[in-house]
């Protein structure tokens, strides 16, 4: 993972506890307000929301959504809420949910209509003086000269405008309350592959065109930095690989990439299997007890356990216990996400920075994590000093195969601050992204039983009841396609961030130094002009016997791991991690979305989260016996001239080869 979201959408609300949702977004905050209003006025009186309506607009104002809609809802809500007890609180909850859904869907519709009506359009290539010129033409020679002058002026103006990137201008509130990449999609359908989005004094260039994305990420990548992303992540990643500037990045990338060699990744497949087995045991318990499980938080814990061990040989064991360090890591992750979508950099405001309890908690968490990392670095340094193993390309310590151990054993000459930054970056990059991919993969599988059945069939044949190995990764081809397709529909992160460091030309447009770019991977991956059935989950779109899809095979319309020099270093690691977890779970369980669970909506952080978790019901699978595929042998006959005829009974095909084994025409 690398990029976080645009700092333009929501004000961050209060926080949830561990770890499924890291922010309470504006809508859920609104819902909390409503719940609070209801609580204050609670039973035994029949509830009257209209009396509290002065509070309601205060949160609905934010949604550019008419108050009458909400009051319609509230009046029906008043009637429903006049019963008592548990029944009442259930009704309140479902009322709150309904309100949230209404707000979200009305806002989406509303915004779509406004975009289509051209409300956000600034420039237009249509003539605006035609009518005036027509009138002027009737005013004799003077009028005709004036009309001629006006036409020439307008033509020059339009030529100049054509060189400018199309611009959409609006009120920041128009896109609040929903994941910010959703309105960007509607704007993309209206304005095309590159447009400027202007909110007050701030403007961003939104890119949804594969050729421009390739230019920014690969062909002219040197001219682009990580911009605001580096500023936002500074507190936790410092000069780690993701935010690092060119100079630091070059040195650190060269040191870190070799640590993820094939032997290391093969060893990690064992780790993925063991961690996934811990998760399966939790699911087993839930299946036995008939309890629903919230999978987003479980996947978050699974991938935290994996990345802790893989990067610095630390057992978070978050699937089995909650410790201070796990809580501290989540505090930092949450803070990074909140900062990425904050309207103002509240963390830089002196009084807030020093006195806010939340910022104090962040500082304490950072200290705890850094102290732990320092301890781990010291322990690892001692191990390296004591060992007597020659360092080579595929160096790995069997007791501690971590990336940290590799870096120290390689003699990497680096300050402990830089090493800490690198480790934190790998921890964050490798944790949230994989958790999000697994969450959305299971969401999609639950709704596509045909895909699930095909997947289970493959896993049964390839793995049976064995633990997965590196060799299996190549054989689990359909499982890989399921992951590829999940990453297309739910790219993590959905937007990549860049800033131009010099003037540049993008197609017919001149771009100045200092422009902020959002490359919308979401738009690229769901573009109706780039994909057939763009919104449909179809792992078959890439044949299993073809190459794995990457940004190269798909010419930058598909960017699951970015592209160019800043491409993800953990792509193979993450793909195998996801394949292993999916395979281990689906071979053992059937599953579906839990009945009565909240609808699975999207919300943005660094990655795409669910709004209220992914609640699922797991049941034990009734498995059919595994029938191995028997390699079919052909019947061969040696002919008089020494050539060989081979015949396959199953399809009746005949092949003739000469003495040298080369196929010859019949
Ligand atoms: C499914 C899981 C993952 C996804 C979807 C993913 C996605 C990405 C993407 C899109 C980028 C490019 C960001 C940009 O250009 O701004 C990136 C960069 C990066 N990722 Fe991943 N990633 C995943 C897992 C991992 C893992 C497991 C690790 C570490 C073990 C990792 C480490 C990194 C690092 C260090 C970078 C920065 C590379 C650089 O700037 O040189 N990622 N990732």
TrEMBL record:
The keyword Ribosomal protein does not apply. GO terms for cellular component: chloroplast. GO terms for molecular function: beta-carotene 3-hydroxylase activity; heme binding; iron ion binding; oxidoreductase activity, acting on paired donors, with incorporation or reduction of molecular oxygen. Its cofactor is heme. Heme binds at residue 568. Residues 641-656 have a biased composition (Polar residues). Coiled coil: none annotated. One of its GO terms (biological process) is xanthophyll biosynthetic process. Keywords: Heme, Iron, Metal-binding, Monooxygenase, Oxidoreductase. SUPFAM superfamilies: Cytochrome P450. Residues 657-666 have a biased composition (Basic and acidic residues). Residues 641-666 are annotated as: Disordered. It comes from the Eukaryota. Belongs to the cytochrome P450 family. This is Protein LUTEIN DEFICIENT 5, chloroplastic. It comes from Ceratopteris richardii.
């Amino acid at each position: 993972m690398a990029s976080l979201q645009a700092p333009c959408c929501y004000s961050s609300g209060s926080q949830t506890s561990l770890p499924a949702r890291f922010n309470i977004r504006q809508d859920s905050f609104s819902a909390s307000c409503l719940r609070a209003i209801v609580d204050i006025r609670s039973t035994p009186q029949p509830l009257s929301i209209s009396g509290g309506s002065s509070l309601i607009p205060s949160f609905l104002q934010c949604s550019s959504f008419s108050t009458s809609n909400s009051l319609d809802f509230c009046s029906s809500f008043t009637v429903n809420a006049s019963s008592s007890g548990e029944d009442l609180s259930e009704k309140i909850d479902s009322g709150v949910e309904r309100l949230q859904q209404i707000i979200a869907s009305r806002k989406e519709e509303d915004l779509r209509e406004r975009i289509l009506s051209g409300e956000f359009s600034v420039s237009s290539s249509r003539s605006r003086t035609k009518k005036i010129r027509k009138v002027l033409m009737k005013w004799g020679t003077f009028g005709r000269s004036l009309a001629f002058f006006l036409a020439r002026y307008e033509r020059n103006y339009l030529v100049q405008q054509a060189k400018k990137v199309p611009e959409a201008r609006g009120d920041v509130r128009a896109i609040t309350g929903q994941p910010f990449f959703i309105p960007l999609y509607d704007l993309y359908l209206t304005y095309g592959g590159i447009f400027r989005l202007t909110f007050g004094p701030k403007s961003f260039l939104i890119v949804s065109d594969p050729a421009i994305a390739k230019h920014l990420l690969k062909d002219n990548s040197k001219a682009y930095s990580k911009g605001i992303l580096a500023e936002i992540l500074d507190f936790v990643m410092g000069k780690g690989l993701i935010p690092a500037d060119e100079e630091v990045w070059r040195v650190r990338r060269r040191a870190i990439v070799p640590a993820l060699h094939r032997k290391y990744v093969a060893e990690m497949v064992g780790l993925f299997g063991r961690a996934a087995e811990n998760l399966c045991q939790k699911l087993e318990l839930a299946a036995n007890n008939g309890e629903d499980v919230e999978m987003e938080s479980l996947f978050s814990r699974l991938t935290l356990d994996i990345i802790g061990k893989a990067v610095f040989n630390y057992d978070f064991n978050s699937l089995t216990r909650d410790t201070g360090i796990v809580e501290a890591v989540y505090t930092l992750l949450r803070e990074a996400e909140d900062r990425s979508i904050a309207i103002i950099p509240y963390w830089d405001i002196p009084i807030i920075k020093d006195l806010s309890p939340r910022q104090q908690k962040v500082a304490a968490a950072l200290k705890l994590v850094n102290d732990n990392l320092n301890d781990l670095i010291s322990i690892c340094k001692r191990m390296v000093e004591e060992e007597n193993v020659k360092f080579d390309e595929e160096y790995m310590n069997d007791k501690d195969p971590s990336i940290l151990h590799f870096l120290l054993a390689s003699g990497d000459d680096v300050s402990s601050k830089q090493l800490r930054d690198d480790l934190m970056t790998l921890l964050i990059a490798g944790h949230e992204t994989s958790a999000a991919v697994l969450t959305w993969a299971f969401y999609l599988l639950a709704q596509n039983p045909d895909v699930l059945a095909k997947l289970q069939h493959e896993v049964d044949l390839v793995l049976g009841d064995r633990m997965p190995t590196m060799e299996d990764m190549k054989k689990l081809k359909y499982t890989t396609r399921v992951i590829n397709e999940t990453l297309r529909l739910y790219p993590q992160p959905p937007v990549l961030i860049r800033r131009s460091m010099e003037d540049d030309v993008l197609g017919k447009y001149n771009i100045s130094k200092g422009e902020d770019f959002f490359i919308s991977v979401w738009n690229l991956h769901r573009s109706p002009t780039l994909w057939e059935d763009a919104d449909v989950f179809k792992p078959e779109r890439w044949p299993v016997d073809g190459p794995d899809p990457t940004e190269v095979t798909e010419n930058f319309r598909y960017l699951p791991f970015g592209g160019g020099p800043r491409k993800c270093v953990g792509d193979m690691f993450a793909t195998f991690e996801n394949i292993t977890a999916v395979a281990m779970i689906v071979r053992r369980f059937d599953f579906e979305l839990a009945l009565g669970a909240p609808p699975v909506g999207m919300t943005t952080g660094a990655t795409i989260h669910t709004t209220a978790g992914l609640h699922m019901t797991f049941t034990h699978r009734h498995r059919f016996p595994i029938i191995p595929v028997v390699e079919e042998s052909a019947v061969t006959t040696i002919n008089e001239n020494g050539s060989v005829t081979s015949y396959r009974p199953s399809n009746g095909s005949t092949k003739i080869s000469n003495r040298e084994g080369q196929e010859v025409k019949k």
